[in-house]
Amino acid sequence: MTVQAHAKVNATLEVYGKRPDGYHALRSVVLPISLADELEITCSKGLSSDTGYADDLCVKAARVLAAGRSDVGAAIRVRKRIPAGGGLGGGSADAAAVLVALNELWRLGLSRKELAERGALVGSDVPALVLGGPVLMEGRGETVSRIAAPTLHLVLVNPGVHSSTRDVYAACQPRGVGEASATSSMIAALGTGDLRQIAAATMNDLQAPAVRLHPQIAEALDSLHEVGALGVMMSGSGSCVFGFAQDAATAVRMSADLTAQGLQAWAVQTVSSAAANC
Ligand code: C5P
Fold first, then answer.
1. Are 28 and 183 within 8 A, CB to CB?
2. 13, 65, 191, 241: which has the fewest Cβ within 10 Å?
3. Whose CA is nearest to atom 9 of ligand 1?
4. 48 pocket-lining for ligand 1 (C-beta < 6 Å)
């Protein structure tokens, strides 16, 4: 079975206090995008992947789904297009696609909601990507619900530095509860479909600490402002940054301008599909 594992950007990411389990409480609007890894998943003996990562999230996801059974197995091959350490949820997208695909291949009959619950055991971003479509993510990432949003055109830039999620969270000063929520403003803006309002509502509490750790991120943000992208912001814990464009042709032109400057850039659009398209 060949499946697409879609990357995401965080249109907002609000970080509240640290929870007793060591994770931070969040509110975030997660938008899956057309940039995707391609996974080839076949039934086989044992569980293996060809990523070469010691902490491979594909195998972790398969193990969680197998739940100790030894009569199910899978071999997973990943054609990587989503940069690692980029805040685009690459590893989590692969894990989400594995959960959805193996649910079918192994005929487990689990619902999306049940798969999302299993995903929370694999990583904080996995439930949102299992659910698919524009999502409001809360808790440490385990509470997910679909939201309405139009198709949006974006430009992404990869500053080429590996940003450690753990280090960026550790450097973040959490906001107080009860403050006006940018995430609520974003959900309202997405509901209107007005790009100016959507662009005005982007925010990310991890951006300032990530820029302090990796000044290259600030340069990538500047480059997006210079080509006229709207609502320019970092995604997740970085290092990739994004901005909105009025339409697909504008996104492609901005991406070409940035590529001509020697930057790694993509023109993408949001997708409302589920984690894996067979
Ligand atoms: O869940 P995941 O393994 O993706 O998280 C990676 C790291 O990011 C955690 O070890 C933690 O340091 C940080 N994190 C957090 N709060 C969250 C999600 C992630 O502190 N809600």
1. yes
2. 191
3. 166
4. no
